[in-house]
Write a structure and sequence with these properties.
CATH superfamily of the largest domain: FAD/NAD(P)-binding domain
Radius of gyration: 21 Å
Number of helices: 8
Number of strands: 20
Structural class: alpha+beta
CATH architecture of the largest domain: 3-Layer(bba) Sandwich
Largest sheet: 8 strands, mixed
């Protein structure tokens, strides 16, 4: 049986950043990942947006860790040559009726510590993005994009360089608590850990049940994308978002320019039963074209279906907001959760990793 200070379950950006931060403190740590490679679920099935911190209620973990994580992520990408761009974002209102919502977003951003947000008029929009048709917008200059797959690879390399061990194609099949921690039996070996970090994304609720933690539910929520065909890509440099979905569950179908110069519309939002269903009953491109009214006349022939992702939400559809769950388990004294990490999880990953590392240090 192997003995180790910390086992991190899940090799998405949350798990890898946590493992790296723990290893940097001189603790022995391994990352257990059920897939053959890191980051194959939510971490690389998203827009790759570096969020500013506008959308989240002041005082929440999402607000604090997004603002801190954004700064850290830009520095990390620059120092490790991860493809990224600080391109800015427009949140657009099509008419005068949307101005109060822009003002509410501006106030919330201010409360979260953002001092660079501006409400801009049609002249500003036309000068910066002539292809965007809107009455007004909230301009966020610190929003950006990152190559999510390159970020995953770099986080893994940094973690292993700091001493973390990566165990791919490995899953937990049983767990038993003793006086000093948890004995985890995997499909390969048995590992004794003084602390276990549950960063299992869509399966964090299943992992908690397996290792004797408290019960909670992860709700899989699919987001789909359409991609502009090369000949129809709009000439847009920034990200363009509509006003957020009134349900509170999503930010609306928006325009994303990737670091590979693709143009995507999405994601949609739909709660579903399965955690692995990326393709059934896909939304037709006509619906994406209808949603992008601020780009003028987008024809269905301008688009083709692209990828999809599944968010790990910790709140059901009847609730409009759920914060990150980053804390010690209430039943198992050796278990730390980093669960319910939907947006802005990618932006926040390094800040989340530091918080998880601090929680682990309290137990070691």
């Amino acid at each position: 049986m192997e003995h180790i200070d910390v086992v991190v379950i899940g090799a998405g950006v949350t798990g890898l950043a946590s493992a790296g931060a723990i290893a940097e403190r001189g603790r022995s740590v391994c990352v257990v990942e059920r897939h053959p490679r890191a980051g194959l679920d939510t971490s690389t099935h998203n827009s790759g947006v570096i969020h500013a911190g506008i959308y989240y209620p002041p005082g929440t973990l999402k607000a604090r860790l997004c603002v801190e994580g954004k700064r850290r992520l830009y520095e990390f990408c620059a120092s490790h040559d991860v493809p990224h761009e600080n391109c800015g974002k427009l949140i657009v209102a099509l008419d005068e009726a949307g101005i109060p919502q822009l003002e509410a977003l501006w106030r919330q951003g201010q409360a979260n510590g953002l001092d660079d947000l501006r409400i801009v008029d049609r002249a500003f929009i036309a000068a910066r993005e002539p292809a965007v048709h809107a009455h007004a917008a909230l301009w966020s200059p610190s929003t950006g994009i990152v190559d999510a797959e390159a970020l995953v690879r770099t986080l893994l390399r940094c973690a292993t360089d700091s001493g973390a061990v990566f165990l791919p194609a490995t899953h937990i099949v049983a767990a038993e608590e003793d006086a000093d921690g948890l004995r985890l039996r995997t499909n390969r070996e048995t590992i004794h850990a003084r602390v276990v970090v549950n960063a299992a994304g869509l399966y964090a609720d299943d992992v908690s049940a397996l290792v004797g933690g408290e019960p909670f539910t992860i709700y899989p929520c699919r987001g789909e994308y359409a991609e502009f065909v090369a000949a129809s890509r709009p000439s847009v440099r920034t990200l363009v978002y509509p006003l957020p979905d009134p349900s509170g569950h999503g930010l609306g179908v928006h325009l994303v320019r990737t670091t590979g110069n693709q143009m995507w519309l999405g994601p949609t939002i739909r709660y579903q039963a399965r955690k692995d269903d990326y393709e059934s009953d896909r939304m037709p491109v006509e619906r994406f074209a209808e949603a992008a009214r601020w780009l003028g006349d987008v024809a269905p022939t301008d688009l083709r279906l692209a990828g999809s992702g599944i968010r790990a939400k910790i709140h059901p559809p009847e609730q409009s907001f759920g914060d990150f769950m980053i804390r010690r388990d209430r039943l198992n004294p050796f278990l730390i959760h980093a669960a319910g990490i939907d947006s802005p999880g990618l932006t926040s990953c390094l800040a989340i990793g530091d918080l998880v590392s601090s929680l682990a240090s309290e137990l070691l």
